[in-house]
Amino acid sequence: MNGSGISHPAFITLDRRRFLAAAAALVAAGVLPARALALAGPHSFKQGALDITVVSDGHLVLPTNILAPDAPPDALKQLLDAAGITGTEIKPDTNVTLVRSGADTILFDTGSGANFQPTAGKLVANLALAGVKPDSITKVVFTHAHPDHIWGTLGADGNLTFPNAAYHAAAAEWDFWMDKDLVTKVPEGMQPFVTGAQKNLTAVKDRVTMFKPGDEVHAGIKVLDTPGHTPGHVSFEVPGDETLIIVGDAVVAAPVAFPHPEWRFGFDTIPDLAIQTRKSLLDRAATDKIKMLGFHWPYPGVGHAEKKGTGYAYVAAT
Ligand SMILES: [Zn+2]
C-alpha cells in the first residue's frame, strides 16, 4: 500500500503467501524438513526480554472511500496514486501480535474468525506455521472489539478458539459494547458489529480481567489510552532498547494517516477524538523514535514515523 513498481508491498505479500503455501506443500510431501517452514515462517524479532512474532490473519477487503471521506479529493488522489492504490477497493493486511515470554504465549487480538470476510480468519493456520497451537495460548489481550480484532475468539464450532487462555480487555471498551441497548443506538449497518462483539465478549465473560490505561497486562507491557477509533480503544507499550508500541487501530491506513493524521477515517467511532489520538501518538513516536506495530499496515506492519512536511511518513523497519 505504500510503494510502486516491483517494490510494492502487495507484490511482496503475494510472493510471500505463494512461497509459504509452496513450502507448506513441500513439507507435507516430505520433500523439505519441517524446520524449513520455520525459516520461512512469520516475521519475528526480539523486544527486550520478549520474543515477538507478527502473525497474519489474512487481509480485509474494504471500500477505498472509507479512507478519508472528507479529504480534499485531489490531495487524497495524489497520495493514493503514490501508494499504488487504484480502484474502489483496498486490501489491508491484518497483523496479529504474538508475544512469547517464559511460560506465557500472549496474543494481542484474535482476528476475524470464520464469520467476517473470506479473505481473513487465517490466524490459526498461520499460528501453526509459527509452531504455535491454539491450546498453548495462555493470554489474549484485546485492543478493541471490532470484528477483525475479536470475532476470532469463537471458532466456527462455537467453542473458544484459544480454550486455555485468560482474557484481558479494557473496561471502557467492554462497557461500551456490552451495553444491552447499544444495538438500538447504532445505524442498521453497524448492528452486526454490536451483536458480534457481544457474542464473542460474552463467551469470555467468566475468564476476563478488566484493565485501564496505565495498567500492565504482562510484566512491563503497559496499556496506553488511544481512544477514538472505538471509545475504549487501547494500544500497548513494550519496553526494550527501543520502545515498541502495539498500535492496534489507533493509526489504520498508513499511506493516508501518516501524512494526514488530521483527516477523518471512515471507521472511527469518535472521529475527532481519533484524530487527536493519532496526532499525539505519531508525534510521540516520531520525536522519541519509537518502533510501532500497526494492525493494518503492510505485513509485518513494523515501522517508524518520521516527521515530513506538516505530517509524517511511514518508514517500514528493515
Ligand atoms: Zn481493524
Describe this structure in words.
The structure is a single chain. The chain has 318 residues and is an alpha+beta fold. It has a single domain, classed as Ribonuclease Z/Hydroxyacylglutathione hydrolase-like (Metallo-beta-lactamase, Chain A). 29% of the residues lie in helices and 25% in strands. It contains ten helices and 16 strands. It has helices at residues 9-28, 34-40, 73-82, 123-129, 147-150, 171-178, 182-185, 191-202, 254-257, 271-287; strands at 43-47, 50-59, 62-63, 89-90, 93-101, 104-108, 139-141, 166-170, 208-211, 216-218, 221-225, 234-238, 244-248, 291-294, 302-308, 311-316. The strands form three sheets. A seven-stranded mixed β-sheet has the order 1-2-5-6-7-8-9. Strands 10-11-12-13-14-15-16 form a seven-stranded mixed β-sheet. The chain is globular, with a radius of gyration of 19 Å. It starts with 8 loop residues before the first helix and ends with a strand. Bound molecules: zinc ion (ZN). Zinc ion (ZN) binds next to α5. Residues 146, 148-149, 249, 295-296 line the site of zinc ion.
